[in-house]
Amino acid sequence: MRVQNGELYGVEIFLFTDNSTAESVFYNGNSSSKRLFHLILRLRRVQQEADLILHLLHVSGKRMIAQGTDGGSRGDLNQGVMTGENMLSYVPLHLSAVDRSPSVLDWMRNIWEERLGKLEHLGIDDWFTKGHGRGNFLWTPPPAAADVVAEQVGEARHKHPESCHIAIVPHLGVCEEQSYWKHWSGNCALCGNAVKNGEGNFCGNFSFTRGNFPACRKVWCPKCYTVPAGSPYPIRTATDEDGFEVAMDGDEDRFRVSRVGDFLMTPFQCDICHFRNVMKRNPDICNEKHMLFMQDIRHANINANWSRESSTVKANFAQVKRLEKVGTDMFGIPSVTPVMGPFPLEDTFGMAIAACLLRRSLDPGRNENTIQFATARRFRSAFSNAVGEMGS
Description:
The chain has 392 residues and is mainly alpha-helical. The chain has helices at 20-28, 34-49, 61-67, 69-72, 97-100, 103-111, 146-159, 271-279, 288-305, 310-331, 351-360, 373-376, 378-391; strands at residues 12-17, 53-58, 119-121, 136-139, 164-167, 185-187, 194-196, 201-202, 219-220. It has 3 domains: 12-90, no CATH class; 97-167, no CATH class; 181-360, no CATH class. The model has no long low-confidence stretch (mean pLDDT 82).
């Protein structure tokens, strides 16, 4: 009706969908699906009859859920724009990659090889002037201006084919990962299987950038986060009054693997995040000391997880999932439990002293192969005294 009345004459309209096929068909102009073909045909007719500009863009399904469209179709008025939030905050076409994540610029400069010459980041004012000269140029347009940059890069390449042009444009089909653990999903770092809904061991920094480091995206299936092969650390088992080992169900995994729900009982950061906290850099796989530190970080993490019994961890995980279900289904609360991270880019967990204490525990003892914990923990006391002295 509004088209027939001429109310939309010359208007520019943006349509967002989580159906990537619809987007591709809209621009290709044809589809083997009759329904999809007629849908696109109707949109093209409206575009011609009203003389309007129509954009059909693919966005992440998670972005649509957060925006409230998904819930609004079911009468849920407590999400996204239904609560008064700005629609444009869910479709940031005006934000460049640098605007959304400033660390992208540092990352690009770090991987750029200096032998190729200087890499120059172009501002908007440089697109039509400096970008057409000789050199190496980095273009970071927002999605709304990507077609303009594509045209300018094409012209610049014709003028100076020897120049290098790199363009980084955000893709709205990839939504910023939500902060709540129950929305996290990823692939196991060991076996590659999909892990979601908290059914694994998620790093607390899973979806967060920290400093100049990108999000680690580390998660493991419960049985995949294990102590390293050839571990030098002995694992003792319970014994009875006669000195015989007392084996219980599940003891074969004790202090050897993680379990579902561990990260909801004990704050967890993955091995590489702990390494970054202490060393302020990524580990070098060719550096023997780095790899030894990573091995001991893994041991310390698993030991910390096993501070709670398996039955306790299992029961807590079940209750947390039920709590989240009630909060979401009954009240529309995004997450009842707090955000897991990110943790500071500092050794707030004391991983450095934990690794040193583990190494100290391998020293030979007087009556046994290794020293007792009471002896090894003197490292911890010494560290506490040193920290206390610095703070006094």
